[in-house]
Write a structure and sequence with these properties.
The protein is of the alpha/beta class. It has helices at residues 43-50, 72-77, 94-104, 109-122, 138-150, 168-182, 195-201, 219-226, 241-250, 273-285, 300-308; strands at 3-14, 17-28, 32-36, 58-63, 66-67, 79-82, 156-160, 187-191, 204-209, 212-218, 230-237, 254-256, 264-270, 290-296. Residues 5-235 form the ABC transporter domain.
Length: 315
C-alpha cells in the first residue's frame, strides 16, 4: 500500500514551549487515522502543519507525493481541511453555500450541481438543501461543512473534531460517510476527544501526549498492547463486597463498587493475564467467596489515562 502522509522529526515550538516534539509517522493511502490526546498534546499544531497553515520549527513533511516545503500549492489542491467549529454563511441556503465553494474549486454547470447533490447525499442532508444555514443546529452545521470539505474530492482530509455537536445517530452517519470516502482511496486524519466513536471509526490511531507520539498503530493492536500493561477485572462475590474492597485497598489496588450491582467490584491493576491470575489466587486464599472473575477489555479511554499518568521522559 502506498504512503499518503509521511512525517519525519516534526517539531513545533512556540517560544520556549514545544508543542510537537520530533514526531515521526507514516499513514497509508485509504486509512482513517485517529489522532488523539488530551488538551495541549500537540494535535492541533500537527493538523495546522499538515494543513499548510503553520510552518514547523523543523522536520520533513510529505503528502500526496509532494514535499511540503517545496510544493505547498500542489498539496493544498489535494487537501480538504475542516477546522473545529468552522463558520458558515448564515443567510445562504445550504445548496447556495456549497455552490459558492464548488465554484471556487473550479466546478461549473451540471458538474457543479451534480457534485453539490452528491455531497449532500453523502452527509444525509439532501432534505435540508433549501434551508438557511443560519437556522441549522450545530450538528447539522458540522455536516454542511463536511460536505463543503468533500466537494473537490480531496486525496487527504484533515478533520478537527468533526463529530462536535452531533447526536449519536448523526455520528453513525458521519462514520458511514467517512468510511465511504476512504473506500475511494482518500486518506483521512481525525482529531477528536470522542474516543469511543473514534475507536469504531478509525483503522489506526496515534496517541499524542505532551508533543510526543506515545502509541501508534492498528486500533486493536494498540488496545491489545495496553492489556499487557494494565488490566481491568470485574469480580462478583457471594457476599463481603466492602471487606473485599478494603482488602484490595490494603494491597494498593483501586476498586470501585457499581451502585446497581451490589455483589460486584471493578478493579484496576498493573499487568496482564499473569497479574489477573495472581489476584484471583490471592482472593481465594484470603477466603473471599468468588462467584465470577472476568477481565474487561481495555478502551481508548483506558489507554489515554494510562499514558497521561506515566512519568516524564528525560531528554
Amino acid at each position: 500500500m502506498s504512503i499518503a502522509i509521511e512525517l519525519q522529526d516534526l517539531r513545533v515550538d512556540y517560544g520556549d514551549l514545544t508543542a510537537v516534539n520530533n514526531l515521526s509517522l507514516t499513514i497509508d493511502k485509504g486509512e482513517i487515522y485517529g489522532l488523539v490526546g488530551p488538551n495541549g498534546a500537540g494535535k492541533t499544531s500537527t493538523l495546522n502543519v499538515l494543513a499548510t497553515l503553520l510552518v514547523p520549527t523543523y522536520g520533513h513533511v510529505r503528502m500526496a507525493g509532494y514535499d511540503l516545503d517545496r510544493d505547498p500549492d500542489a498539496i493544498r489542491a489535494r487537501l480538504g481541511y475542516m477546522p473545529d467549529l468552522a463558520p458558515v454563511v448564515g443567510n445562504l441556503r445550504v445548496w447556495e453555500f456549497l455552490d459558492l465553494y464548488a465554484a471556487s474549486y473550479g466546478l461549473a454547470g451540471t458538474e457543479k450541481s451534480k457534485r453539490v447533490d452528491e455531497c449532500l447525499e453523502l452527509v444525509k442532508l439532501a432534505d435540508k438543501r433549501d434551508v438557511l444555514c443560519g437556522t441549522l443546529s450545530r450538528g447539522m452545521t458540522q455536516r454542511v461543512v463536511l460536505a463543503k470539505t468533500l466537494l473537490h474530492k480531496p486525496e487527504i482530509l484533515l478533520l478537527d473534531e468533526p463529530a462536535s455537536g452531533m447526536d449519536p445517530l448523526a455520528r453513525i452517519d458521519l462514520k458511514d460517510a467517512l468510511q465511504s470516502v476512504a473506500t475511494t482511496g482518500a486518506t483521512i486524519i481525525i482529531s477528536s476527544h470522542i474516543l469511543s466513536e473514534l475507536a469504531e471509526m478509525a483503522t489506526s490511531i496515534g496517541i499524542l501526549h505532551k508533543g510526543r507520539l506515545r502509541e501508534h498503530g492498528d486500533v486493536h493492536d494498540v488496545l491489545a498492547s495496553m492489556e499487557h500493561a494494565i488490566s481491568k477485572v470485574e469480580i462478583e462475590l457471594v457476599d463481603g463486597r466492602e471487606a473485599c474492597r478494603d482488602w484490595l485497598a490494603s494491597h494498593n489496588l483501586t476498586a470501585t463498587l457499581p451502585e446497581k450491582q451490589p455483589h460486584r467490584i471493578h478493579v484496576e491493576l498493573a499487568g496482564g493475564k499473569d497479574a489477573q491470575a495472581t489476584l484471583l489466587k490471592d482472593l481465594v486464599q484470603a477466603n473471599f467467596q468468588i462467584h465470577g472473575f472476568q477481565a474487561r477489555r481495555s478502551s481508548l479511554e483506558d489507554v489515554m489515562r494510562a499514558i497521561s499518568t506515566e512519568p516524564e521522559e528525560s531528554e
